[in-house]
Batch of 4 targets.
Target 1
Amino acid sequence: MAERFIKSNKIRIGDISISYHTKKAKTESTKTIIFLHGFPFNKNMWREQLENLADDVEGIALDIRGHGNSTSGHGFFSIDVFAKDLRVFMEKLEIEQAVLCGISMGGYIALRAYQIFPDKISGLILADTHSKADSNAAKQKRFDSIQAVLNHGRRPFAIGFVENIFASQSIEERPEAVELIKSSIRRNSVNTICATLLGMASRTDTTDVLPTVAVPTLLIRGTADKITALQDMVDMHHALPSASFIELENCGHLPNLENPEHFNKLINDFVARI
Ligand code: MLT
């Protein structure tokens, strides 16, 4: 079973401890791919990807500050802080270069990381994400969500979130994915959920970096994604010098869980070409 090659570890970086899964490569010459989860999930959303990586690829899926089993540290979350955590994490693990695969919030982090330390990034896979900052309306929605979580707790938030996040076909056919996401949301503390909502509301627009991206880039979106608008990804595609954009049918916001077979083939073919 491929599963046994996945190990869980913890590493201290600055004021936090980062929890991560690794799937070691079986060969000597290796490439590294780092998976960045969305909000408010954790590293377990990438298990199927880790399990199906090619033998010459080392895969790492980490819990972003405050999420899953990583600690929160100072508690002042921002996409900028998450990207800087990633840089220190890569330095500590002596990873010279990696492909970053980020979904949604993970994509915001990957793009900010490319702005700060492009030389450590050998490729970008950006799924159901975009480069724009929140509009005023989007910020207000996050502030309303914070109030709702503070007043009513995580459970109703998780239920509403899940209904929005998956394609209806996935809700019927992928109950294990739906359960994984529900339980991931509930495992994060109220503080983490609220601090991350504020962190996303305060993120900077990374559109300026797109024309400078000099590494292979793959954009993926579920055609039934109700959270990341198609136009935002089309705009990002046009601004990138050379990127492929693939849409996955019958998938919502989390195509890696909704159609892992197709998603895995896309990322494996992409990494093989790097
Ligand atoms: C995510 O999945 O990470 C979130 O939907 C991102 C966001 O709310 O902007």
Target 2
Amino acid sequence: MPDGGSGRPGPVSATRHDWTRDEVAALIALPFPELLFRAQTVHRARFDPTEVQISTLLSIKTGGCPEDCGYCSQSVHHESGLKASKLMQVEAVLAEARAAKAGGASRFCMGAAWRSPKDHDLEAVCAMIEGVKGLGLETCVTLGMLSGPQAGRLREAGLDYYNHNLDTSPEYYGSVITTRTYQDRLDTLSHVRDAGINVCCGGIIGLGESEDDQASLIATLACLPQHPESVPINLLVRVAGTRLEDAVPVDPISFVRIIAAARITMPASMVRLSAGRESMSDEAQALCFLAGANSIFYGPKLLTTPNAVERQDMRLLDRLGMVPMQIGGTAPAS
Ligand code: SAM
Ligand code: DTB
Ligand code: SF4
């Protein structure tokens, strides 16, 4: 898809895939008015700034994960008090998807606490994907590492998006997760891409990483051969019992700066203001929208932790004169 394919007004800058960490760091450090102006300019060239894409999350298989991600309530290496459960039945998942659609979601995202799916579990997830698509919703799943054939099977079932986050910089990754490598993540992302599934890939801010790590994460995402269609930027939800429960809270203005950098470097991607909204003020969220975020998770829960309250979300959008994006309203990334 050529740049500017959305047909929306405004100057369209060239999409680059050669960002350096230092260039991104310099962007993040711009005077705030300059940074937001640049992010707004890029955003308006391809998107209607009043529209927000709404996704709803469901944990279809919770807890008991063998990985040791330092932030995660679902790792067996943590004592978060979370009760592990088996893969949900298809009908129960579809009931949740119907409720999400009735609540205004255009995409339904299903997450499983696996290192990688077993083939028989993948078949059950394929049935969920087919059922959710049948309701007229876009589908996204996040199941851990995939082989090429597994990605192909998900595509065959009609999967629209696969979420697989890089989470942090390549340099800091080993301080957060030791049970897999950055290259493992990149390998799965290329299997997903090769299978023709849209990529949802982003990270977490607040893991104790440096500003250089934050710039490096954004530069890594922006240097992927094709930008992810969807870029979730999560603010760490500090879960008691996890290794990062006492991580230093992030300054909301610094968080807005990261959102702006994601918008500027990946101009055609949907940038999702993801986990962590519950702890943000309405004003900080409004700044994130001004910085180019145009997607949120909506609903009572994320995967295992509470989300921002729905009534307040709709009131915020209303106060800002913003509206939920309809299915198909997303511009493809390049
Ligand atoms: N197990 C799969 C995986 O790791 O890819 C899928 C589920 S995992 C929970 C999906 C993503 O949720 C992680 O990559 C991470 O970015 C995000 N996440 C998990 N716990 C989080 C937390 N406490 N705060 C913010 N984001 C979190
Ligand atoms: C993403 O980037 N964030 C979502 C989704 N993709 C799967 C998950 C957020 C999880 C927050 C912590 C929890 O609820 O367990
Ligand atoms: Fe497992 Fe995913 Fe949590 Fe890591 S983030 S512990 S892989 S569920």
Target 3
Amino acid sequence: MTAAEAFDATDDLSDAVSPFRYADGRLHADEVPLARIADAVGTPVYVYSASGMRANYRALATALDGLDVTICYAVKANSNLAVIRALAAAGAGADVVSGGEIRRALQAGVPPDRTVFSSVGKTEEELRLAVQAGLCQINVESAAELEMLSTVAVSMGVQARVAIRVNPDVDAGTHDKITTGIRGNKFGIEIEAAPAVYRRAAALPGIAPVGVAVHIGSQLMDLLPFRVAYTMVADLVRHLRSEGLQIDRIDLGGGIGIPYHRDESPADLARYAAIVRETVGDLGCRLFVEPGRLLTGPAGVLLSRVLFVKHGDGRDFVILDAAMNDLLRPAMYDAWHTILPVTEPSAGAALRPFDVVGPVCETADTFAKERLMTAPGDGDLLAFGNAGAYGAVMSSTYNTRPLVPEVLVDGSEFAVVRKRPTFEEMVALEAIPPWLAAAD
Ligand code: LLP
């Protein structure tokens, strides 16, 4: 493989709509050279393209056109206020999973009547916040949660609109750690047990059971499991209606995968939409989908600088200033992320295998093993592709490394949308108790 093949950004970073492209030998986000952002903000830094996110949203919206569907962006994928705002401005609602995410979505301007609240373990306080905010729907995942929500809603004098999340026992065929719809997962209520739970819901004060919800997993590259699960949900809706329940909503969850590796191809959204139409399209229900990764994943990169190239025993290491605390996916899921040189290599440049690692003191801090790349030099900039989803949100301050900052690009403009904390800010919530402070 030549460098030209390995580093064709439009190919590696998903497809032709990637906002990351080489121009004049430099990798750009929209019209902004990534090197300019690195100079202005420092590295490591996440860089997102608002236009890329909007394009991803529009692609899904166009595919689903004609259906009564609300696209609720799964905020957990990237919950930066500016990102939520950009998607809300494009028309997205929100799927939130905590009190914090409810507040983020509201603050970013997502209308409550386009916001659904999922989560397998909601606290009473979070349920109260959701009801108070007038969220459009609460996706309940257990009989006990239903009872708690009933008490909350009655105490607030309202009827809470509820969808019950069912577990259809369909294998999404994804990484074990992100499959959610098979028996034995903690999520939802077994689909066979659902009718009894709906009967209980209908009898409870303060509860309006209006919908069925399902989410079978994340990063699905094969659409067939969606068809199987949605067909089961449609059958359940018909059954519940035959029992006299007024079910008029279906939440189809998220999970559409993106190509991380050049051998993978993007999900066929027209086919996904056809599956939706064919399975649940004739039920007259208001539909919801909850994509996260699809909207923000391909629209972000993690930009990092090479600290040193170290020649080890039979291996060469590229040591970066980014680490597993900044981008956890490789350590956690053995995930592959494309690594692109910010300065475009010459077409004939030779490729060599490198282990790409961070400075954190554990072997898990490895981004890629024996990755074929053009030999980088100390100080070079590299960009991890498809890092706009489940990147910054999963970052931590492990090794007392500051949370990685985030930059949003839109056309020729860019802005820091989360700044890098100072050391003082990092320790501001900590305290040395008086009996220790007095020791000297
Ligand atoms: N709805 C529910 C109920 C979910 O649990 C999730 C993701 C989504 C929607 C959005 O799924 P998406 O469209 O993004 O696949 N940290 C992992 C992914 C965890 C996904 C958790 N739930 C990763 O980095 O791959």
Target 4
Amino acid sequence: MAERVEVLLTEKEVNDRIRAIGEQISRDYADRNVHLICVLKGGSFFMCELAKRITVPVSLDFMSVSSYGADTKSSGVIRIVKDLDESIKEKDVIVVEDIVDSGRTLSYLLNMLKERGPKSLALCTLLDKPERRVVDVDVNYTGFQIPDEFVVGYGLDYAQKYRNLPYIGVVKFD
Ligand code: IMP
Ligand code: MG
């Protein structure tokens, strides 16, 4: 089956929006430090770009949970593959994700992080597919709401491909 990628959001659109979210976070967290948690691997490109646009002090940590294999549908099975290096106790934490789809991954992750006693816990996602939601999740910062299509680029993959595209594209199967 042939596969091609159509541009949904250009590099400029994505970067402009990330800049605006960075400014918003800098205002919301004025006089505080923000501790960004990147959900690997998809959130990595977004977190780097976002962190550069935040003007209050930033620290970073990474975690990895499995939810998707080479398939385009959520399995509902979530497992911590890599946990955080540092404690989040009493920190102002923002979880940075590539996309909220069914909401299963984030709902699980946020509940788990809440139990570790952060001072505050927020969620920032580059993309949101609200039509696909199965589990409710509170999203504090959203880059773009997108239709129910499988997207790649800017960290998002299809079978580990296309993460390095500097824009968001839709995978089409001909
Ligand atoms: P959820 O648990 O269904 O919300 O799935 C969240 C995870 O599924 C994301 O962090 C992505 O890794 C992956 N995912 C969901 N939709 C897409 C997509 O359109 N393209 C690539 N990955 C996706
Ligand atoms: Mg992800």
